[in-house]
Specification:
By secondary structure, the protein is of the alpha/beta class. It has 19 helices and 25 strands. Bound molecules: fructose -6-phosphate.
Length: 617
């Protein structure tokens, strides 16, 4: 996920920006850059890859006087990780850094290009600086132009902008992406003649970590906030233009906890983050009543009669979910392959098949190899991936990025969530292309998609309940996770999560399969985690659970409908559609594994024997 830093003051601006970016390295990035304005002169540097490359480029650059500076680490979402696409982005005499996604960038870009503006990058961010400069021409001052620009943007953003037209100011705006400003209490100088005036130096960042050690007090911006800072002023305005007082709080001094945003584990943070990252996944792709994928050409599907999905582990489970959605909504034959199996079984590949690989990292050796095989066989290929410029992205004909940001916990959570969200969108995109669903049904589902970020929000009540329940599930001779239809891949994923971080034996099964053998294991020490959605085969799934309950298996039911045959019951929200139930139950099984692992004293983020990216066969 991208990171932002900013500094206004007399200290060594270059060092402060580079040190700040280093503190954001843990978030993952593929390029970085800084722009510093001192004595009305800009210096800007960008580099692809690690920060040492940027340090190398800036080694002869010195900042000694008062300066304003902004910096950024970029995780590519629009456009490849190249120097041109790295931030800060330049207009004629201004630079901008931005986190988030500008949804209406294509419209703004077209208007600007019609006015003769030349774009250097493929990013959505670049429109901000050009739009600002366009507005500057008719505005009284830079702040008026900045405010106008902010009101013209749609989407999510945290923005810092610096401009020669007011060279001792940093402009900021926040909507949907985090940002804070910090001051150092010891250096606080208030000038009584200016209301709201504060301090001397000001620090900005997209999360706490870069400010620790520099700032004593921070103000977390709220959505809709925008304004500017100068040496003796911090001016914050709310969405409707009213001036606000800053609301300072003390900054924590614990860097590791700051990186985890205060959560106990990265995995926990990533579970909580799912609401925001899924909103990013949907952004710009969920139209009023249809799905738009700017990054792919619909001709990719010309002549395609089958989709074959290939992946490993959690990504394989999301591929399995896709097969239900593609066949149900897009009416296209779909098959799913475990990549390590596919490689060696001399598969028949026909050119009317679109070969889709799914990978969080884009580097998994087995999946990559199947992609190579498909390319060699002349198939069209698509990758659903979280890391731009990864080996799979470079190789495939087309890419859809999941935009989950870096995932630190070895047990995958938000990567899975964003993959399934992409597949749901893709099934509707294909349904339109293939005329397999009525337009009003597509529109209904498009509006459901917008509800996923709410469905995956973790409530205190839910987390507390799971925490309490977890103590009853620390032993036994195994777990069955069971579900029907698309809840079967979710059952597999739930079982995998539990195995990975609790080291307890767990299996995922289709509910209807229990009586064909596995039910022989049923006894009180066999724990069954039953997924019982209201809107998909409820009665069928319920009777499968009853069969287990009759054999005295210990049942934990997850359902919006109370189930009296269960020993434990986690109630989910009554909602409109089984896919929203899917996403909420996904969070439940993730938290369930997490809390069991915590009680067992395991290393949640780095479970034994596992690696985050499996680049060997
Ligand atoms: C499980 C997990 C793994 C990965 C698998 C494939 O939590 O993370 O099962 O899903 O190793 O990795 P990617 O998606 O990077 O290809």
């Amino acid at each position: 996920m991208c990171g932002i830093v900013g500094y206004l003051g007399k200290k060594n601006t270059k060092e402060i920006l580079l040190d700040g970016l280093k503190e954001l390295e843990y978030r993952g990035y593929d390029s970085a850059g800084i722009a510093v304005l001192q004595d009305n002169q800009f210096d800007s540097f960008k580099a692809v890859g690690k920060l040492v490359n940027l340090e190398e480029k800036t080694k002869d650059f010195v900042t000694e006087n008062f300066a304003v500076g902004i910096g950024h680490t970029r995780w590519a979402t629009h456009g490849k990780p190249t120097e041109l696409n790295a931030h800060p982005h330049l207009g004629d005499s201004s630079y901008v850094v931005h986190n988030g996604i500008i949804e209406n960038y294509a419209t703004l870009k077209k208007e600007l290009m019609d006015d003769g503006v030349r774009f250097l990058s493929q990013t959505d961010t670049e429109v901000i600086v050009h739009q600002f400069e366009k507005n500057l021409k008719s505005a009284e001052n830079a702040f008026e132009a900045f405010a106008k620009t902010i009101h013209e943007l749609k989407g999510a953003y945290a923005i810092l902008l610096v401009t020669k037209s007011e060279d001792k100011t940093i402009f900021f705006a926040k909507h949907g992406s985090p940002m804070l400003v910090g001051i150092n209490g010891e250096n606080k100088v208030s000038s009584p003649e200016r209301e709201g005036s504060l301090g001397y130096e000001k620090y900005f960042a997209s999360s706490d970590a870069p400010l620790i050690g520099h700032c004593s007090d921070v103000n977390y911006f709220e959505d809709g906030d925008y304004g500017y800072v100068t040496a003796d002023e911090l001016a914050i305005f709310s969405k409707n233009g009213d001036k606000k007082k800053p609301n300072f709080s003390k900054l924590s001094t614990n860097k590791l906890s700051a990186q985890k945003d205060g959560y106990r584990f990265f995995m926990e943070k990533e579970i909580y983050e799912q609401s925001t990252v899924i909103a990013d996944t949907l952004m710009g792709r969920v139209g009023d009543d249809e799905i738009l994928f700017d990054e792919i050409d619909s001709s990719l599907f010309d002549g395609i009669h089958e989709i074959k999905l290939s992946a490993c582990g959690t990504s394989y489970h999301s591929a399995l979910s896709a097969s239900y959605l593609f066949e149900r909504y897009s009416k296209i034959k779909t098959s799913v392959e475990v990549a390590s199996e596919f490689r060696y079984r001399s598969p028949v590949m026909t050119k009317d098949t679109l070969f889709v690989v799914i990978s969080q990292s884009g580097e998994t050796a087995d999946t990559l190899e199947t992609l190579k095989m498909a390319k060699e066989a002349g198939l069209k290929t698509l990758v659903i991936c979280n890391v731009d410029n990864s080996s799979m992205v470079r190789l495939a004909d087309a890419t859809i990025l999941t935009r989950a940001g870096i995932e630190k916990g070895v047990a995958s959570t938000k990567a899975f969530a964003t993959q399934v969200a992409v597949f749901w969108m893709m099934s509707l995109y294909l349904a339109k292309l293939r005329n397999s669903l009525e337009a009003n049904e597509i529109a209904r589902q498009v509006s459901l998609l917008r509800e996923i970020p709410t469905s995956v929000k973790v409530t205190d009540a839910m987390h507390e309940k799971i925490k309490r329940l977890s103590k009853r599930y620390l032993h036994g001779h195994g777990f069955f996770f069971i579900g029907r239809d698309i809840f079967y891949p979710l059952a597999l994923e739930g079982a995998l999560k539990l195995k990975e971080i609790s080291y307890l034996h767990a299996e995922g099964y289709p509910s209807g399969e229990m009586k064909h053998g596995p039910i022989a294991l049923a006894d009180p020490e066999l724990f069954t985690i039953a997924l019982l959605p209201q809107h998909l085969l409820y009665e069928k799934a319920k009777s499968n659970v009853e069969e287990l309950s009759a054999r005295d298996s210990t049942i934990c039911a997850i359902s919006p409908i109370e189930f009296d045959k269960a020993d434990d019951f986690i109630q989910t929200t009554v909602c409109k559609d089984y896919m929203l139930e899917f996403f909420e139950m996904m969070v439940v099984v993730q938290l369930f594994s997490l809390e069991i692992s915590v009680r067992l004293g395991n290393d949640v983020d780095m479970p034994r024997n596992l690696a985050k990216s499996v680049t060997v066969e």
